[in-house]
Amino acid sequence: SVHFNDPKYPQQWHLNNQRSPGRDINVTGVWERNVTGRGVTVVVVDDGVEHTVQDIAPNYSPEGSYDLNSNDPDPMPHPDAENGNYHGTRCAGEIAAVPNNSFCAVGVAYGSRVAGIRVLDGPLTDSMEAVAFNKHYQINDIYSCSWGPDDDGRTVDGPHQLGKAALQHGVLAGRQGFGSIFVVASGNGGQHSDNCNYDGYANSIYTVTIGAVDEEGRMPFYAEECASMLAVTFSGGDKMLRSIVTTDWDLQKGTGCTEGHTGTSAAAPLAAGMIALMLQVRPCLTWRDVQHIIVFTATQYEDHHADWATNEAGFSHSHQHGFGLLSAWRLVNAAKIWTSVPYLASYASPVLKENKAIPLSPCSLEVLWNVSRMDLEMSGLKTLEHVAVTVSITHPRRGSLELKLFCPSGMMSLIGAPRSMDSDPSGFDDWTFSTVRCWGERAQGTYRLAIRDVGDEPFQAGILRQWQLTLYGSVWTPVDIRDRQRLLESAMSGKYLDEGFTLPCPPGLKIPEEDGYTITPNTLKTLVLVGCFTVFWTIYYMLEVYLGQRNVASHPVCRSGPCHWPQRSQKAGAEETELESVPLCNSKDPAGADAEGEGAPRRAGLPVPAVREPGAWGLSQSRSAPDGPHQPLRPDLLRGREERIC
Amino acid sequence: LAGTDGPGAEGPGGLSWAVHLDKLEGEQEEETLEQQADALAQAAGLVNAGRIGELQGFYLLVQPAGHRQDEQAEAIRQQTEAVLARHEAVRWYSEQRLLKRAKR
């Protein structure tokens, strides 16, 4: 029943697919119930946001924005030679493009506010990333990052020490302590058989890793697989399929609207927008609640190519699609009734030194680690969320290695997929792979790591130096999980959304943003300029006064004692002008006593105005009296004035 | 996106290091940490560019403006890292290098 006058809204199939009903994010029902992301701020960490575009301006949040490339508060994108800095603006449009403005498109969370952090348009270091991830982290609720290390099928990289520390700080202290929500795109390396488990941002337990499916629900050619993929949502596919329609920048060749936004870059912001809808109905969801709700509500769907597997907790996961397709309706209805999950519990095995050779396929090296009840006693960990494996392996061609992890239930995760493009001889040095495929399963039991060499070298060359297992989860029991699944299914009718049902929501912590006020270079330059200007004029005026006085002092009329005004012509100019232009010299005070002698004290430095005998007004007349009929000065006026001057 | 030289290159505008200083007990630890960072920067011939975002105890030390160019870089790098490695207040340090990041 929602209708918008935005000209491109009918083409926005990802919002409401008229051509293939159901192939959309299922958001109109949520909008009908006034859930539009109100009160939530999503920040797009990218190459800038052109917030002057009319589809973004009303929803733009300057308070949540910053430009780390130019070090000033305005994240406007800078046109460049490649005409490429439209990326952030497009992502922002997907999230919060304003509806019913007869312009372009509509955002998923069109009632939310969108900010921009410009960080990709210039040299980028670990410390800059760390600043970006926590910038205005009490204002920005969700950080949407549609970027990452190269998707070239041979890079192994992710956040470095400071970036990792900032992600962790963000989930601990961000958003009044509920935790910043970091949404990352899983990567576009599909054509290079890349895998997002080689991307530390996707692999991180602190991020929501989002993949893409095309309008037919299939994995697009560019998409990557990985065991840490949480869910997927729509984006463009190959040429025959439609891409995402969204706001665009209007600089260079930009028109303010595009129908060509695609890649996992286009999927992540849609997920960020849906999470904004969740936070409107339940602002106190923690960063882990959001991950849980995604796991519980994402839907498996028919895709023959996808290796769907159902784990012990009843969750279906595939390396291509994560736990499945995101639905705004399911996410919001689940958020409405969600009570927070227990605290995060973790268990880490000792570093297990192996130094064992990795055999050629089809054989594989298998190493086991049993996690006993005793091991988990301390942390209380009962059911799993993320499972991480940190490995150090030497091998002359890293892409030949295949690593699989089997949870106690037998659920297999391909944590390190072979990569034909990766010929790097440096192997893995403490690289952490992770999987979400065992979510909700019991933590206790034996974990099995199987590694084999699928390369075509004739000899085995790989050595597993050491590895370490880390389990993340909570005290929830499998029964708790099943109960929660049932509760959510009962909410999917929308009854809680309709009845104005509301659970209590704690307000969160008051955490000061500690970044002191840093004067930006622009401000600094302005201050310096104003300062110089002020100094210059001060000097100029002082000189003028000084020289003015010197002239007067050296004037013959005044040199010989009290001033006698040269004969005033009858042509008095405008009285005011003449009076004002009277030079100041020593003179008598009204009582006739010479101000030089006794009587009124002389004001240091300033000559006292002359007392005028009648007719003694010539000087100023000759200088400033305009030609024309003049009235002699009236004594009454004169006296008053004379007194005033004296 | 980021610089073309890959991870081995210098930080934006010259060499820079991130350092993690040991927490101090008691009041106003932030100011003291700031002063410590200033002193450390001076000792290492760098400039304290301030705390890194919201990460308490982490500071960015950069080469002063007008620093000498590449021919000295290696010598400066070694000399600086020797100072940082020796300094008792430094818990961790890392030279800031360009990261390669791609839009998706």
Structure description:
The complex is a heterodimer of chains A (646) and B (104). Chain A is α/β, with parallel strands linked by helices and 646 residues long. In chain A, 25% of the residues lie in helices and 19% in strands. Chain A is built from 16 helices and 21 strands. Chain A has helices at 28-32, 87-96, 126-133, 161-173, 200-203, 264-281, 287-297, 328-337, 373-377, 478-491, 495-498, 521-553, 556-559, 575-580, 618-624, 635-645; strands at residues 41-46, 66-67, 113-118, 142-145, 147-148, 181-185, 207-213, 231-234, 244-247, 257-261, 309-310, 316-317, 345-348, 352-358, 365-371, 383-394, 401-406, 412-416, 428-435, 445-453, 462-474. In chain A, the strands form five sheets. A seven-stranded parallel beta sheet of chain A has the order 2-3-1-4-6-7-8, sandwiched between helices. In chain A, strands 13, 14, 16, 19 and 21 form a five-stranded antiparallel beta sheet that branches. In chain A, helix 2 packs parallel to helix 6 (264-281) and helix 6 (264-281) runs parallel beside helix 8 (328-337). Chain A is globular. By secondary structure, chain B is α+β, with helices and mostly antiparallel strands. Chain B has a four-stranded antiparallel beta sheet with strand order 2-3-1-4, with helices on one face. Chain B starts with 15 loop residues before the first strand and ends with a strand.
What is the strand and helix layout of this fold?
The complex is a heterodimer of chains A (646) and B (104).
Chain A: H1 28-32, E1 41-46, E2 66-67, H2 87-96, E3 113-118, H3 126-133, E4 142-145, E5 147-148, H4 161-173, E6 181-185, H5 200-203, E7 207-213, E8 231-234, E9 244-247, E10 257-261, H6 264-281, H7 287-297, E11 309-310, E12 316-317, H8 328-337, E13 345-348, E14 352-358, E15 365-371, H9 373-377, E16 383-394, E17 401-406, E18 412-416, E19 428-435, E20 445-453, E21 462-474, H10 478-491, H11 495-498, H12 521-553, H13 556-559, H14 575-580, H15 618-624, H16 635-645
Parallel strand pairs in A: 1-3, 1-4, 2-3, 4-6, 6-7, 7-8
Antiparallel strand pairs in A: 9-10, 11-12, 13-21, 14-21, 15-20, 16-19, 16-21, 17-18, 17-20
Chain B: E1 16-21, H1 29-43, E2 47-51, E3 58-62, H2 70-86, E4 90-95, E5 102-103
Antiparallel strand pairs in B: 1-3, 1-4, 2-3
